[in-house]
Task: structure prediction
Amino acid sequence: MAFPSITRRTALAGASALVGAASIWRPREALATKQLTVVLESEVIIFDPHFTTAAITRTFGYHIWDTLFSMDGKGQIRPQMVEAYETSPDKLTWTFTLRDGLKWHDGAPVTAAECVASINRWSPRDALGRMLRAATASMAAANDKTFSIVLKEPFPLMLQALGKANAPLPVMMPMRFASTPGDQRLMAMPVGSGPFRFRADLWKSGNS
Result:
């Protein structure tokens, strides 16, 4: 199924399809009563942030998806989906533990195995990702919350790679998306774990 495109005309109506993810878990009486309308700067052709370097896809992607690390206002890389991480004394093993309570917008829990699959999908598409991939000996989940990357040689740009702010974005995806080869564009409606969820039932493509 192909994605509907977003234009400046449809954005005003279609922006209502981006619903705050936190509202999924709030009681009905706590829901906000006002609607925020956002107009994107250009048409979204591709919604797959692993697949393309398009700036508009990056903008849209940060609304829907989330990353293991992110850059703060001072340009420092900080944990985002990650609660804690550690490195071995020889800097060859990195172990990451996810925050408690991470969920996809469909309510399913985010797992470490999905993070591994997401990194594997993204990394061949990105220059920094390819550097990480070349330095990696193995990557695997130890349990639902923890995964490790074992390197062949130290890779000092690990956090910069996993928290890079430019496209293609190293976003985490549910397994049904992350298991799709990175050179195949995702055609299903996006389901992420970011601040907003995409509501296909509210999308009104073609409205003026």
The first strand starts at residue 18 and ends at 20. The mean pLDDT is 85.
